[in-house]
Design brief:
Strand 1 (144-147) and strand 2 form a beta hairpin. The chain is elongated. It has helices at residues 2-13, 19-40, 45-77, 83-96, 108-133, 156-177, and strands spanning 144-147, 153-155. The protein has a two-stranded antiparallel ribbon with strand order 1-2. Helix content is 72%, strand content 4%. By secondary structure, it is mainly alpha-helical. It contains 6 helices and 2 strands.
């Protein structure tokens, strides 16, 4: 085992020019450190399974990222294209692939954001209905737009309340329609 480590250290001392080879050497070095740490630690079966799942998930995310980047790398490898053709190809790839720099970020932030937006939309809907249902003083009910009878009608406050309800419903729908 120590001989293998010494060979790996000797191989990693040489500066490879290929970025993919650099990544492989870096991962091999970290994996050997991880193996050494695991051999020295006393880890239970539950933690062991949890760590295995985390490592498998990391490799899965890496493979997914490489799949998403493959069309861009293929376009980069084509040397006989002019700059205009490269630009058109890149524009087409960006239009087809929803791709951003946050490709490997955890999804917990999105879940928290959806939760906050859900609570905010429910609060807007409740406040809107409360403004319609609860009686308001006559000085607060500014102007009656439509009279049902002499004592009742649709006021500007009711219309504003309906706009608040509509905003809450719209926020609720937009929040859960996102991918």
């Amino acid at each position: 085992m120590k001989l293998k480590r010494l060979l790996n250290d000797h191989d990693s001392d040489q500066a490879p020019h290929d970025p993919q080879r650099q990544d492989i050497v870096r991962v091999e070095k970290k994996v050997s450190e991880l193996i050494e740490a695991i051999e020295q630690a006393d880890i239970g079966a539950q933690h062991s399974k949890q760590y295995q799942k985390q490592i498998a998930d990391a490799f899965q995310r890496s493979a997914t990222t490489q799949k998403k980047l493959a069309p861009f790398k293929e376009l980069d490898q084509e040397n006989n294209l002019s700059r205009e053709e490269l630009l058109e190809g890149l524009e087409k790839l960006l239009a087809e692939n929803q791709f951003d720099s946050r490709i490997n970020t955890p999804r917990r932030g999105r879940l928290v954001q959806k939760g906050v937006m859900f609570i905010l939309s429910i609060l807007l809907i409740i406040v809107g209905f409360a403004m319609i249902i609860m009686p308001a003083p006559p000085s607060f009910e500014l102007f009656t737009v439509y009279h049902f009878n002499i004592n009742d009608g649709v006021t500007i406050m009711d219309l504003v309340s309906l706009l608040i309800i509509f905003g809450g419903v719209l926020l609720f729908v937009i929040n859960f329609n996102k991918k």
